[in-house]
Amino acid sequence: MSEVREGYKMTELGEIPSEWEVVSFKNCCSIVSGLVDPNEEKYKEYPHIGNANIEKESGKLLKYNLVKDENLISGKFLFNEKHVLYGKINPHFAKAAYPMFGGLCSADMYPIETNLEILIPEYLLYLILDNRFTKAMTANSARTGIPKVNKQEMDSYKFILPTIEEQQKISSILSTVDEQIDETQQLIVKTKELKKGLMQQLLTKGIGHTEFKQTELGEIPLEWNIYVLEEIVTILDGMRKPIKKNDRKPGKIPYYGATGVIDWVDNYIFEEQLILVGEDGENLRSRVLPMAFKIHGKTWVNNHAHVLKPNQNINIDYLTYYLESIDYDDYITGSAQPKLNQAQLKKIKTLIPTLQEQQKIASILSTVDAQIEVYEQEKVKYEELKKGLMQQLLTGQVRVKI
C-alpha cells in the first residue's frame, strides 16, 4: 500500500487534503420540487431556461427568451439567483449553468440549492461539469435504459469537498479560464462575420472595379463572365465508391461524405486537390456544415458528395469559396430528403473573374480562414487547460494558495 503524503488522508475516493471531506450530494445540496404554471400572469416577465439554452460541457448560458415570448404549456420549476441548473435528460451532454438570476426552467432540469455554509454555487457548477460526475450519471442512466438522471442517483453521488475558502479560489481560477474561452469564441464569431461580408463583396464585385454590367446574376464587373459549372470543371463522380462501415479497414486515409471526414480507411481513390460538394442530406438546406470544401492528398469519397476537378484556368480555392457562398435552393430536389443531383449540379451558374483576380480573392479569404484557425486552436488550448485544472484542483492533487 502506497504511503499517504503529508497533509493528506486516504478516503474511499482516494487521497485527499486533510482539511477536505468526502460528502454525498444530499448532505450539501437540495433539488427544488414542485412545478408552477407558466401561464400565470406573475411569471410572464420571467426568463425561461431549457436544455437548449445551455451549452454542453462548458457551463455557458446561451440566448434565452422570456416566458411571455414562448408558447409554454406544461409546468416549470421556479429557480432563484442562488440555484444551479442541471439538465437531467441525456446526462452525457453535461448541461449545467449558474445563471445568478431567477426565472422558470424546464421540468427536464433540476434547480439545485446548496447549503451555503459548506458549498458555494459557483463550485457546485464545476463539480457537476467535472467528467467524473458526468460519467457517474451517464453510467446510471445506461444501467436503467433511460437517458435521464433521477433524484436518488444524484443524492447518493459522493464527491470531495474543500474548505469554503478553497472553493472560492478554485472557482475564481476556473472562471478566469472560462472568460478566456468566451473571449476567444467572440473573436471567432467576429472573424467569421468579417469573412461572410468579404465573401459577399469579393465574390460578386471583385477587387477595384469601376465598370460593371447587368446580368442574370445581378450587377458584376465588366471583365467577369458567367459559366455553368459543367463548363469549368470535370465531374469525377464515377470514381467515388461507398464502403459499408463493417467493411472499412481502419487506416490513416480520410473517408469523406457529404459534409467532411466521417471515417479513416487504409486505401484511397484520389490523390490530388479536388472540390467536394454535398449531394444529399439535411445540410443542403440548413447549411450548418460546409456544403463545398477542398480535399487534397490521398482520399476516399463515398457517393454522398460530388467530386469536382477544376479546369486549368480556374483557381481551386476561389471556386471552393464561391460554391460555399451560393444559395442552392433553386437546384435542390426533394423535400423530405433534399438532393442535389448531378444534372442540377452541372447547371449551377458561377461568376468567374480572370485567373489572376481569382487568386487574389482566394488569398484574401484564405488569410481570414487562417486567422479563424488560430483562434479555434487557441480556444481548444484553453478548453484543455480547463479540463486539466479541474482534474487537479477539484481533487486536491494541486492545492491553491489562500
Q: Could you give a quick summary of the protein structure above?
A:
The chain is α+β, with helices and mostly antiparallel strands and 402 residues long. The protein is 32% helix and 23% strand.
Polypeptide structure, described:
- The two termini are about 30 Å apart.
- This protein is α+β, with helices and mostly antiparallel strands and about 400 residues long.
- The model has no long low-confidence stretch (mean pLDDT about 95).
- The radius of gyration is 27 Å and the shape is elongated.
- It folds into 3 domains: about 10-160, DNA methylase specificity domains (Adenine-n6-DNA-methyltransferase TaqI, Chain A, domain 2); about 165-200 and about 355-395, Orthogonal Bundle (Helix Hairpins); about 225-350, Adenine-n6-DNA-methyltransferase TaqI, Chain A, domain 2 (Alpha-Beta Complex), CATH 3.90.220.
- α6 packs across α8.
- It has a 4-stranded antiparallel β-sheet with strand order 4-11-8-9, with helices on one face.
- The chain has helices at about 120-130, 130-145, 150-155, 165-205, 285, 315-325, 340-345, 355-395; strands at about 10, 15, 20-25, 30, 45-50, 65, 75-80, 85, 95, 105, 110-115, 160, 210-215, 220, 225-230, 235, 250-255, 260-265, 270, 275-280, 290-295, 300, 305-310, 350.
- The chain is about 30% helix and about 25% strand.
- It is built from 8 helices and 24 strands.
